[in-house]
């Protein structure tokens, strides 16, 4: 049986910690996987709406698929959950047994999933309490902020009780007295004495009884050590649960995000993380703090800038090195160990959070020109990211996620710092090209190949790796040659269109006509760079029809400009594009538009006299002219500078008399 929320509230008011623990354990078990508390109500409502629709064949409105925020049926339950959250926030502010504190925080974590019940948890006092229990001491919270937090809490209590009094009878039965620490734990209940560690978190508690004069020296040493270990473990669990609640609240509430910024939560969280990163043994709750750091920097732009100014890139790079136990060789080379075991799930989770936060604060670095110190830092980070790309994980999904976040950061770093990806010893390389270690580039190529086969979220998953390979190919000759051999090998089979090919070339050419403009542009740009921005070579591998979009955007439709006109011309080598024997034999029969050898088609003008041909041409021009005047189509032509422009003046080749004759023929 799931305990009644009103019953839980009554027991909390009485201060019976043991009973509170039992009731909340049952409540948490029931709602452990619940994200929408009014699911039963919503199901009944949907059934009623469906039945109403069947009878009347009319649907008055479309309700939300998962939750209805204006549902009156769920209002009493919502009020009770808000009241429970308020009571628990006051309860955990008192001195509790670690097991009781843990179960209270678990309940708050479940309640924090519901955005409608976040009112009590987005106040300054609630955020300060949760941060304190999570090991984050908000030392810079001024007295005025604390006074304002108390006022907010009082207003929240008043609002909840007012709504409860005017609501259903069940809601009105709840104690309408605003809860406080003294009212939640009355003097008559057993007192719990607690000692706090440096972070202000309860890690040791003993129940105060008449025999409190018994000293620890009289206890068994083994029992003492075992008890301390259990209490330390309980303390870690409670700290983690408090941070989880904070993560949910900040993620679900813009108001909480603003309050967290005002309370300088990021500064104190950052100090706590730096202490853990600086120590040899990071705390067990570092992952959840990293998750909270990611959320703050993702949701608040000013906090991203602030963390960047706090040397966030340097500290997080060190944290990444610590997680992966990086060993440095000469220069910017991370030593790899082929016998090393797969990284654990715990380490991979921390690595992912660090990478996501790094991207938040480094996503605009490619627009800046780094000085000598910054360039050294970015090169060190690039070396660690190269190591991340070559990691081995138990789960393929975890490895791909790590590689995805790594690619995001690499695409954001200055191009001048990416030479570190290639400047490693070639002795133990699995893939070599022109005396350079290509293991990293090969991994990126495989990563791109996997992402090309995805259909969901193609833009956000594919564009970073396409941009990274494109820019790397522009500035690194060896990278371009290696990728060209894999993506654009010499042409042999000329019987199929480029977009119908099953190779990497075919997959990228298909993206050149994708409905998403960004995806289309990035795919075309990579192939264009691999062709050294040579128009004729680009058309050769993709077909003029597929290449027209990029050529039009660059003013290259007339084909008069080649790679020598590009700003990167000096970086492209002078090697020629060698044709295969098959290509040379079929070159004269290749249709440049489709990019393949087409079957011979009969001449549609065969058998017509010159007058008939001229008349057919005039009729065609007249029809095109009418369609353009009605704005159904807009004919364009290639200008001198190789761009498309409207072709209005050239569409009036037919005389007025010819048009009148056509009108008469249509009438007849």
What would your notes on this structure say?
The chain has 668 residues and is mainly alpha-helical. Among the domains are: 5-33 and 74-210 and 221-256, no CATH class; 264-421, no CATH class; 617-667, no CATH class. Helix content is 57%, strand content 4%. It has 28 helices and eight strands. It has helices spanning 5-14, 17-30, 39-56, 75-91, 98-111, 124-133, 143-165, 169-172, 181-184, 221-252, 254-262, 265-278, 286-299, 301-309, 312-324, 345-362, 372-389, 396-412, 439-452, 458-475, 477-487, 504-511, 517-530, 535-542, 544-554, 581-586, 610-629, 656-667; strands spanning 192-196, 202-207, 432-433, 436-437, 590-591, 596-597, 636-638, 644-646. Strands 1-2 form a two-stranded antiparallel ribbon. The chain has a two-stranded antiparallel sheet with strand order 3-4. Mean pLDDT is 78; it is low at 60-73, 140-146, 156-227 and 650-656.
Key features?
two-stranded antiparallel ribbon, single chain, 8 strands, 668 residues, mainly alpha
Helices and strands, with pairings:
Layout lengths: L4 H10 L2 H14 L8 H18 L18 H17 L6 H14 L12 H10 L9 H23 L3 H4 L8 H4 L7 E5 L5 E6 L13 H32 L1 H9 L2 H14 L7 H14 L1 H9 L2 H13 L20 H18 L9 H18 L6 H17 L19 E2 L2 E2 L1 H14 L5 H18 L1 H11 L16 H8 L5 H14 L4 H8 L1 H11 L26 H6 L3 E2 L4 E2 L12 H20 L6 E3 L5 E3 L9 H12 L1
Helix pairs in contact: 1-4, 2-5, 4-5, 4-7, 5-10, 6-10, 10-11, 10-13, 12-13, 13-14, 13-16, 15-16, 15-17, 16-18, 17-18, 18-20, 19-20, 20-21, 20-23, 22-23, 24-25
């Amino acid at each position: 049986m799931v305990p009644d929320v009103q019953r839980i509230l009554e027991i909390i008011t009485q201060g019976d910690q043991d009973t509170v623990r039992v009731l909340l354990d049952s409540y948490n078990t029931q709602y452990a996987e619940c994200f929408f508390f009014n699911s039963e109500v919503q199901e009944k409502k949907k059934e009623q709406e469906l039945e109403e629709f069947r009878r009347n064949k009319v649907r008055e409105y479309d309700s939300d698929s998962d939750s209805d925020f204006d549902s009156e049926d769920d209002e009493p339950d919502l009020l009770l959950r808000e009241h429970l959250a308020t009571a628990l926030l006051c309860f955990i502010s008192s001195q509790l047994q670690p097991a009781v504190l843990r179960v209270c925080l678990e309940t708050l974590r479940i309640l924090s999933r519901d955005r409608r019940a976040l009112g009590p948890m987005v106040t300054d006092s609630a955020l300060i309490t949760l941060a304190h229990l999570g090991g984050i001491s908000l030392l810079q919270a001024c007295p005025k902020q604390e006074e304002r937090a108390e006022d907010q809490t009082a207003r929240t209590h008043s609002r909840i009780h007012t709504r409860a009094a005017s609501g259903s009878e069940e809601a009105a039965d709840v104690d309408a007295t605003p809860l406080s620490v003294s009212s939640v734990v009355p003097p008559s209940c057993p007192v719990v004495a607690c000692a706090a560690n440096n972070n202000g978190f309860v890690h040791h508690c003993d129940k105060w009884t008449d025999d409190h004069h018994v000293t620890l020296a009289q206890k068994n040493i083994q029992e003492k050590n075992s008890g301390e270990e259990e209490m330390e473990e309980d303390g870690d669990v409670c700290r983690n649960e408090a941070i989880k609640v904070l993560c949910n609240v900040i993620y679900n509430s813009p108001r909480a995000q603003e309050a967290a910024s005002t309370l300088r939560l990021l500064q104190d969280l950052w100090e706590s993380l730096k202490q853990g990163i600086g120590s040899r043994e990071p705390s067990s709750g570092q992952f959840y703090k990293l998750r909270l750091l990611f959320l703050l920097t993702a949701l608040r732009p000013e906090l991203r800038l602030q963390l960047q100014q706090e040397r966030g890139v340097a500290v997080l790079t060190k944290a990444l090195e610590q997680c992966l136990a990086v060993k440095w060789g000469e220069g910017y080379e991370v030593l790899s160990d082929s016998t090393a075991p797969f990284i654990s799930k715990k380490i991979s989770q921390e690595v992912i959070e660090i990478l996501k936060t790094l991207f938040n604060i480094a996503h605009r670095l490619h627009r800046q020109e780094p000085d000598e110190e910054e360039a050294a830092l970015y090169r060190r980070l690039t070396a660690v990211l190269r190591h991340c790309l070559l990691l081995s994980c138990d789960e393929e999904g975890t490895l791909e996620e790590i590689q995805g976040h790594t690619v995001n950061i690499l695409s954001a770093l200055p191009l001048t710092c990416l030479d570190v990806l290639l400047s490693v010893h070639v002795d133990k390389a699995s893939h070599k090209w022109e005396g350079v270690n290509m293991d990293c580039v090969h991994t990126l190529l495989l990563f791109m190949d996997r992402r090309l086969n995805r259909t969901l979220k193609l833009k956000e998953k594919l564009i970073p790796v396409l941009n990274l390979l494109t820019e790397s190919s522009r500035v690194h000759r060896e990278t371009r040659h290696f990728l060209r051999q894999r993506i654009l090998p010499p042409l042999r089979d000329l019987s199929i269109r480029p977009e119908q090919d099953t190779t990497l070339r075919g997959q990228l050419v298909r993206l050149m006509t994708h409905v998403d403009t960004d995806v289309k542009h990035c795919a075309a740009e990579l192939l264009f760079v691999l062709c050294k921005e040579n128009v004729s070579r680009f058309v050769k591998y993709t077909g003029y029809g597929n290449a027209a979009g990029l050529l039009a955007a660059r003013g290259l439709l007339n084909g008069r400009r080649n790679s020598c006109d590009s700003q990167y011309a000096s970086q492209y080598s002078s090697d020629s594009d060698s044709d295969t024997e098959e290509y040379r034999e079929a070159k004269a029969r290749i249709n440049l538009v489709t990019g393949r050898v087409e079957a011979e088609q009969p001449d549609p003008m065969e058998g017509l006299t010159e007058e008939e041909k001229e008349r057919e041409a005039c009729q065609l021009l007249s029809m095109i002219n009418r369609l353009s005047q009605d704005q159904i189509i807009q004919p364009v032509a290639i200008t001198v500078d190789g761009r498309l422009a409207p072709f209005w003046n050239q569409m009036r080749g037919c005389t007025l008399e010819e048009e009148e004759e056509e009108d008469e023929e249509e009438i007849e």
